[in-house]
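Example for tutorial group B:
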């Protein structure tokens, strides 16, 4: 059997990206390749290791340690390690490598902590800081649905059923459609935004418009809107994902099944949501300690 010809890691990475495009991965996923895998490819080249066959488990571990020394979060390092692992698995499947160097590398663990969510006072302060119907509607929709930023900005008029509150999230993460819901208060505010500022969008028109361009709001535009609200309200960590975390936590506290929440949020597994469930169970313990019938007997 002839000896396998060495493959440059840059060529393998180019093939990996092309495979992602051919499989119609989302733009966000392809961008993740660039952010997580490409720096590793360049680093290997800088270390004088341009060929796949020369990459060892020790080399990969050295890169992961370097990332940790840069004080990147455990979530970030874990995500990079998993992305590199997926890249090498692709190389093995394409017969560019006989074995993945990640087979002997343990993916760094993620710190078990819940990222910040809003308190009820935070939300009250943000609502009080709203100056337009658009700002208040955006805040309530984010809080009431838990949708991702990309899902929020891609909503069209025809995706929202004002009668039932059903909202069709098209091509969410993993190119999967799902349905989320708006409560009566949020629908009322959305209708106020339509009636007083935006006008009712047609089925194919965006729900959320840029004030400046009158085109669909961008990710940057949404974050600027939230940044202005945060500044006025004096609230920290006002991002789309903080609304998403708050939706998850408040839904569980209000009695929603974790399986219904999984479906609404579009999570493929329950691992992340179980962290919120543990926090809610902690709430129950504190509530019992405060209200125990026996401990409160006279």
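The residue assignment follows.
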């Amino acid at each position: 059997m002839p000896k396998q010809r060495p493959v440059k890691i840059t060529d393998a990475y180019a093939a990996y990206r092309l495979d992602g495009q051919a499989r119609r991965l989302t733009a966000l996923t392809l961008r993740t390749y660039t952010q997580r895998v490409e720096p590793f490819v360049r680093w290997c080249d800088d270390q004088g290791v341009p060929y796949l066959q020369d990459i060892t488990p020790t080399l990969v571990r050295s890169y992961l340690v370097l990332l940790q020394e840069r004080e990147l979060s455990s979530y970030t390092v874990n995500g990079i390690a998993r992305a590199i692992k997926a890249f090498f698995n692709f190389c093995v499947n394409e017969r560019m490598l006989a074995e993945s160097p990640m087979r002997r590398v343990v993916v760094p663990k993620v710190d078990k902590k819940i990222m910040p969510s809003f308190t009820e006072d935070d939300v009250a302060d943000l609502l009080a800081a709203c100056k337009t119907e658009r700002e208040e509607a955006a805040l309530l929709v984010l809080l009431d649905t838990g949708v991702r930023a990309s899902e929020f900005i891609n909503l069209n008029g025809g995706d929202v059923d004002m009668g039932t509150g059903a909202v069709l999230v098209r091509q969410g993460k993993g190119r999967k459609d799902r349905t989320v819901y708006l409560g009566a208060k949020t629908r009322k505010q959305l209708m106020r935004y339509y009636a007083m500022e935006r006008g009712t969008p047609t089925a194919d028109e965006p729900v959320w418009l840029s004030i400046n361009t009158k085109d669909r709001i961008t990710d940057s535009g949404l974050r600027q809107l939230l940044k202005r609200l945060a500044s006025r309200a004096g609230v920290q960590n006002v991002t789309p994902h903080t609304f998403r975390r708050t939706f998850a936590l408040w839904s569980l506290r209000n009695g929603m099944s974790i399986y219904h929440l999984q479906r609404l949020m579009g999570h493929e597994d329950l691992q992340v949501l179980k962290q919120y469930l543990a926090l809610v169970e902690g709430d129950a313990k504190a509530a019992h300690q405060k209200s125990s019938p026996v401990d409160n007997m006279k």
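The mean pLDDT is 87. Compare this with the pattern of hydrophobic and polar residues in the output above.
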